[in-house]
């Protein structure tokens, strides 16, 4: 992994602790060593992203089903802020509604992945995500 990618922090916004652990485990298994900062709700993640002095670029993994706000509202806030608008956002959710998928892409999501409800299928999808993260180039302003 290049130094450029190593500087990228992954911000995971996922309220299901089991899913969060599985996602992180499989990202690590794919050889991605970047920092992963996890939030269980949208408010804390948004506060972190918008108010922190961002020392490095971020890649955001976003679940749409959050306890305190919709993922779409959070995505909109991320993409409308000058400091975070260029951060790639990968939506990871169980929602496969065509309207919701379109809405997320319209708001600026880069990738939309439906979490299979089957554990093995979900683990495989996350392994694929880890491989994707190991080669992606995140823009640096």
What is the highest CATH level, the class? Alpha Beta
What's the story with the biggest beta sheet? Answer: 5 strands, parallel
What percentage of amino acids are in beta strands?
15-25%
CATH topology: Rossmann fold
The CATH homologous superfamily corresponds to: Response regulator
Mean pLDDT: 83
What share of the residues lie within helices?
40-55%
User: Structural class from helices and strands?
Assistant: alpha/beta
Structural domain count: 1
Q: Using DSSP, what is the number of strands?
A: 5
CATH architecture: 3-Layer(aba) Sandwich
Seen as an oligomer or otherwise, the chain set is single chain
Q: Rg to the nearest angstrom? A: 14 Å
Low-confidence stretches: 1-6
Per DSSP, the total helix count is: 6
Q: Strands of the biggest beta sheet: in what spatial order? A: 2-1-3-4-5
Coarse morphology: globular
H/E element order: HEHEHEHEHEH
Distance between the termini: 20 Å
């Amino acid at each position: 992994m290049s130094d450029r990618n190593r500087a990228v922090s992954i911000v995971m916004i996922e309220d299901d602790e089991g899913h969060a652990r599985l996602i992180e485990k499989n990202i690590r298994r794919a050889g991605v060593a970047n920092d992963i900062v996890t939030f269980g709700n949208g408010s804390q993640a948004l506060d972190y992203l918008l108010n922190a002095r961002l020392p490095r670029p971020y890649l955001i993994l976003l679940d749409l089903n959050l306890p305190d706000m919709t993922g779409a509202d959070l995505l909109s806030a991320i993409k409308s802020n000058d400091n975070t608008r260029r951060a790639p956002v990968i939506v990871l959710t169980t929602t496969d509604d065509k309207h919701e998928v379109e809405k997320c892409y319209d708001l600026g999501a880069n990738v939309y992945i439906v979490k299979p409800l089957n554990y093995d299928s979900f683990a495989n999808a996350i392994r694929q995500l880890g491989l994707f993260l190991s080669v992606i180039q995140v823009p640096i302003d």
